[in-house]
Write a structure and sequence with these properties.
The protein is α/β, with parallel strands linked by helices. The chain folds into two domains: 202 residues, NAD(P)-binding Rossmann-like Domain (Rossmann fold, 3-Layer(aba) Sandwich); 93 residues, UDP-galactose 4-epimerase, domain 1, CATH 3.90.25.10. Helices cover 42% and strands 16% of the residues. The chain contains eleven helices and 13 strands. It is globular and about 60 Å long. The termini are far apart. Bound molecules: NADPH dihydro-nicotinamide-adenine-dinucleotide phosphate and guanosine-5'-diphosphate-rhamnose. The site of guanosine-5'-diphosphate-rhamnose has 23 residues, from α7.
C-alpha cells in the first residue's frame, strides 16, 4: 500500500517541491489549502512542477483545529509535514498577532490533531534558522542557544519547543528541522533572492532601470529548496525522532548574491542597485551560518546545488516568465 502524506502549506515553495519528491517516492499526497476568493491561483507552484493533478487538495486552516481533526480522520496519514506559516519575516512586525497564531500556536493545532486522531503518524515541523537571530555561536548547530529577533522568529521558537514537548510528553514521532534559507524559482517574490532575480531579469529586458534593496550587508546560508525537502523526508524515515540543522555551511552577503545574478546576464550591479531605507528591518539578523554535521552523519544528507547554480536557474526562470508575459 502506498504511504499517505498530509502537507500543510502545500501551495508554498517547499510544499510544491516536497509534493514532487514524495510522488516520486510513490506516496499518495494530500495538501491543506486555505479558502481564498482567488479560485485557481493557489496551486500555481504545483502547476509549475507539473504535479497539480497528482495531489489531492483539501480545505482547512491552521487556525481551525476542527478542520485539522477532520482532515486527519479523512486522510489517515502515515506522515504529516507542517509547512504552513506566515513565513515572511518583514511582515511579522506588521501582523505580529496573526504570525503568533499561525506560525506559533498553529503548530499546536496540528500536533493536537495528530495526537487525537493519528498518534502513530510521523510529524515534521518546519523550524527556522531565524530562531538563532542574534547568533550565540559563529556556526549554529542543534546545541546553539536561540535568540530570536522578530515576531516571526519568536513564533517559530514556540513551534519548535512545542514539537519537542509533544515528542517528550506523548511519545509522538515528531521531528523539528531547523532549516536555513532555501530558495528556488518558486520562491515568493518578496524574499530577497527572488526579488533580486526578478529585478535583474526586468532590468535585462528593459522593463525596469533599478533594483531597490535594504541591508545588503546581511549574510545568509542559502541552499536550494529541492535539496532541503529531501532532508525533511529523511528525518521522518529515522527510527527515532530528533532535531536537525539543515544548511550548506557557507555564508554569503546579499551584495555578493546580487552580484552573481547581475553577472549572469552580463550587467554590472553598480548603477542599478539603490539602497532604500524602507526595506530595513526594526531588528536585523546580521549573519547566519549553519553547521549541518549532524544531518550529514545521521541522515546521510548533503546539499547538491550550489548558490551560483541556483541563482542562475532563478534568473533564467524569471527571464522566461517575463518574456512570456510581455509576448
Ligand atoms: P511559503 O510562504 O512559500 O508557504 C507558506 C504556506 O503556508 C503557503 O502554502 C500558505 O498558503 C500556507 N499558509 C499560510 N497561512 C496559513 C493558514 N492560516 N492555514 C493554512 N495554510 C496557511 O513558505 P516556504 O515554502 O518557503 O516555507 C515552508 C515552511 O518552512 C514555512 O513554515 C517557513 O516558515 C519555514 N521555513 C522556510 C525557510 C525558507 O528558507 N524557505 C527556512 C526555514 C523555515 P497560501 O498559498 O494560501 O498563502
Ligand atoms: P529571511 O529572508 O528574513 O532570512 O527569512 P529574506 O530573503 O526576506 O531576507 C534575507 C536578508 O536579506 C535582507 N534584505 C532584504 N530582504 C528582503 N526580503 N527584501 C529586501 O529588499 C532586502 N534587502 C535586504 C534582509 O534584511 C535579510 O537580512 C527567510 C524566510 O523564508 C523565513 O520564513 C525563514 O525562516 C528564513 O528565511 C530562514
Amino acid at each position: 500500500m502506498a504511504k499517505r502524506a498530509l502537507i500543510t502549506g502545500i501551495t508554498g515553495q517547499d510544499g510544491a517541491y516536497l509534493s514532487q519528491y514524495l510522488l516520486e517516492q510513490g506516496y499518495e499526497v494530500f495538501g491543506v489549502v486555505r479558502r481564498s476568493s482567488h479560485f485557481g491561483v493557489a496551486d500555481h507552484r504545483l502547476r509549475w512542477l507539473g504535479v497539480d493533478k497528482s495531489v489531492q487538495l483539501l480545505d482547512g486552516n491552521l487556525s481551525d483545529l476542527s478542520s485539522l481533526i477532520r482532515l486527519m480522520e479523512q486522510v489517515k496519514p502515515d506522515e504529516v509535514y507542517n509547512l504552513a506559516a506566515q513565513s515572511f519575516v518583514a511582515s511579522s512586525w506588521q501582523q505580529p498577532v496573526l504570525t503568533a497564531n499561525i506560525t506559533g500556536v498553529g503548530v499546536t493545532n496540528v500536533l493536537e490533531a495528530v495526537r487525537l486522531v493519528a498518534p502513530t503518524a510521523r510529524f515534521y515541523q518546519a523550524s527556522s534558522s531565524e530562531m538563532y537571530g542574534k547568533i550565540q555561536e559563529a556556526a549554529q548547530s542543534e546545541t546553539t542557544p536561540f535568540y530570536p529577533r522578530s515576531p516571526y522568529a519568536v513564533a517559530k521558537l514556540y513551534g519548535h519547543w512545542i514539537t519537542v514537548n509533544y515528542r517528550e510528553s506523548f511519545g509522538l514521532h515528531a521531528s523539528s528541522g531547523i532549516l536555513f534559507n532555501h530558495e528556488s524559482p518558486l520562491r515568493g517574490i518578496e524574499f530577497v533572492t527572488r526579488k533580486v532575480t526578478d529585478g535583474v531579469a526586468r532590468i535585462k529586458l528593459g522593463l525596469e532601470k533599478e533594483l531597490r534593496l535594504g541591508n545588503i550587508d546581511a549574510k545568509r546560508d542559502w541552499g536550494h529548496a529541492k535539496d532541503y525537502v529531501r532532508a525533511m523526508w529523511l528525518m521522518l524515515q529515522q527510527d527515532v525522532a530528533d532535531d536537525y540543522v539543515v544548511a550548506t555551511g557557507t555564508t554569503t552577503t546579499v551584495r555578493d548574491m546580487c552580484r552573481i545574478a547581475f553577472a549572469h546576464v552580463g550587467l554590472e550591479m553598480e548603477g542599478h542597485l539603490v539602497i532604500d531605507p524602507a526595506f530595513f528591518r526594526p531588528a536585523e539578523v546580521d549573519v547566519l551560518l549553519g553547521n549541518p554535521a549532524k544531518a550529514k552523519a545521521k541522515l546521510g544528507w548533503v546539499p547538491e546545488i550550489s548558490l551560483e547554480t541556483m541563482i542562475r536557474e532563478m534568473v533564467d526562470a524569471d527571464l522566461t516568465r517575463l518574456t512570456r508575459l510581455s509576448s
